[in-house]
């Protein structure tokens, strides 16, 4: 296991429940934190409490962090997607974090670690748009891990189902009577994230914390 104490870490999307929990866990493990949030006022107190710097963008801060986590919430989707252009734009927006991480990987030192967190709202069905989106992200994680493996830079994914995974509009909302599945608590997400960041032999893996939802899709 790679020791996290003394490592420099950037956490993006820290305003999300997963991002907040991971930032707290990294701070407890002794990492030096730099936080990126689209909602700066909301996380100023968190940054101060963790003795972390708060960045406007992930391009700021340390040039070569040891650890990079993107826990940004999935973006809002349109109510309907009726054309090829609609689908292309939706996938571009939803998968922009992968491009950010790929750009950051070029500037990271060898033996570092990257983690992409895709927190799925518990109320959303596993069918429809969700399974292809998760599969695309898993493939992107594996591809980036393959590109960086020779340097010893590890890339993994984490896909928890959470009560507060995100509030998505339109066709992503469930019927009112649809039963809810079990969810991962933020502390469980943070524990899994720290394991993936520290496990020296784990790369190209996307770990699902979904209570078997995918097995029932």
From TrEMBL:
<dbReference type="InterPro" id="IPR051122">
    <property type="entry name" value="SDR_DHRS6-like"/>
</dbReference>
<dbReference type="Pfam" id="PF13561">
    <property type="entry name" value="adh_short_C2"/>
</dbReference>
<dbReference type="GO" id="GO:0016491">
    <property type="term" value="F:oxidoreductase activity"/>
</dbReference>
<comment type="similarity">
    <text>Belongs to the short-chain dehydrogenases/reductases (SDR) family.</text>
</comment>
<dbReference type="InterPro" id="IPR036291">
    <property type="entry name" value="NAD(P)-bd_dom_sf"/>
</dbReference>
<protein>
    <submittedName>
        <fullName>SDR family oxidoreductase</fullName>
    </submittedName>
</protein>
<dbReference type="InterPro" id="IPR002347">
    <property type="entry name" value="SDR_fam"/>
</dbReference>
<keyword id="KW-0560">Oxidoreductase</keyword>
């Amino acid at each position: 296991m790679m020791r996290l104490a003394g490592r420099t870490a950037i956490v993006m999307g820290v305003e999300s429940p997963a991002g907040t929990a991971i930032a707290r866990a990294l701070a407890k493990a002794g990492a030096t934190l730099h936080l990126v949030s689209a909602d700066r006022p909301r996380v100023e107190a968190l940054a101060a409490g963790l003795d972390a710097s708060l960045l406007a963008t992930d391009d700021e801060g340390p040039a070569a962090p040891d650890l990079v986590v993107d826990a940004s919430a999935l973006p809002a989707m349109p109510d309907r997607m009726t054309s090829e252009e609609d689908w292309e734009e939706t996938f571009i927006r939803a998968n922009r974090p992968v491009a950010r991480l790929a750009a950051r990987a070029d500037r990271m030192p060898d033996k570092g670690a990257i983690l992409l967190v895709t927190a799925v709202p518990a109320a959303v069905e596993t069918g429809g748009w969700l399974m292809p989106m998760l599969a695309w992200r898993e493939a992107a994680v594996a591809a980036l891990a393959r590109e960086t493996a020779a340097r010893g830079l590890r890339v993994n994914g984490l896909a928890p189902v959470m009560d507060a995974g995100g509030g998505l509009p339109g066709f992503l909302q469930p019927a009112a009577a649809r039963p809810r599945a079990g969810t991962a608590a933020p502390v469980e997400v943070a524990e899994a994230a720290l394991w993936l960041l520290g496990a020296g032999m784990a790369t190209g893996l996307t770990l699902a914390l979904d209570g078997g939802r995918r097995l029932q899709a």
